[in-house]
Amino acid sequence: MPQEVLHARGIGDLSRPAAAIVARAETRGDEVDDVRSLLLAHADAQAGSADAARSVATTVALACLGDNHLWQDLQFASRAELSALMRHWFPALVAKNVADMKWKKFLYKQLCEREQIFICKAPTCAVCADYRVCFGPEE
Ligand code: SF4
Predict the structure, then answer these.
(1) For residues 130, 69, 102 and 15, what is the CA-based torsion angle, rounded to 10 degrees?
(2) Nearest to 94 by CA among 51, 85, 130
(3) Three-state SS across 109-130?
């Protein structure tokens, strides 16, 4: 992940999160904690310092509270930039996302599966009516 992308797009800068996200974080702190823990459990120690990894994980977890695609709420220019960030900091998670699921969907699905909560309506994604909600273009 080019560090210039990381910083130019404001990731890691928690001083200016969207007001709606700040408000939601006050009541959904457990959710932020869970997503951050998931990310950090898959962090690559070679990617950067532990503090930097925690900052990135916190930012991504907070951005998950937004209403838009995750790459949009992270103020990236495209989903490709978010995927690059994920590859750099959390390659073990990228390896699990073999079907290239939308990142926010993928992260929350990981949490549900970890808790053995299966909220999906179909036995497999391939036959699910919500397939396009979880996969496909994010534009
Ligand atoms: S496509 Fe359907 S089955 Fe697959 S993760 Fe999404 S909701 Fe669940």
Answers:
(1) -140
(2) 85
(3) HHHHHHCCCCCCCCCCHHHCCC
Residue ranges around ligand 1 (CB below 6 Å): 109, 120, 122, 125, 128, 130-131, 134
Q: Report the alpha-carbon distance of residue 47 to residue 58 in Å, rounded.
A: 16
Q: Say which DSSP state 1 is in.
A: -
Per residue in 109-137, pLDDT tens?
999 888 777 777 777 777 888 888 888 78
Q: In this predicted model, what pLDDT tens digit does every residue of 77-100 receive, in sequence order? A: 899 999 999 999 999 999 999 999
Ligand 1 center to 99 CA (angstroms): 11
User: What's the chain's length in residues?
Assistant: 139
Nearest to 91 by CA among 55, 45, 42: 42
Q: How far apart are CA 117 and CA 137, in angstroms?
A: 26
The whole model's pTM is what? 0.82
Q: In whole angstroms, what is the distance from residue 19 CA to residue 93 CA?
A: 29
CA-closest residue to ligand 1 atom 8: 120
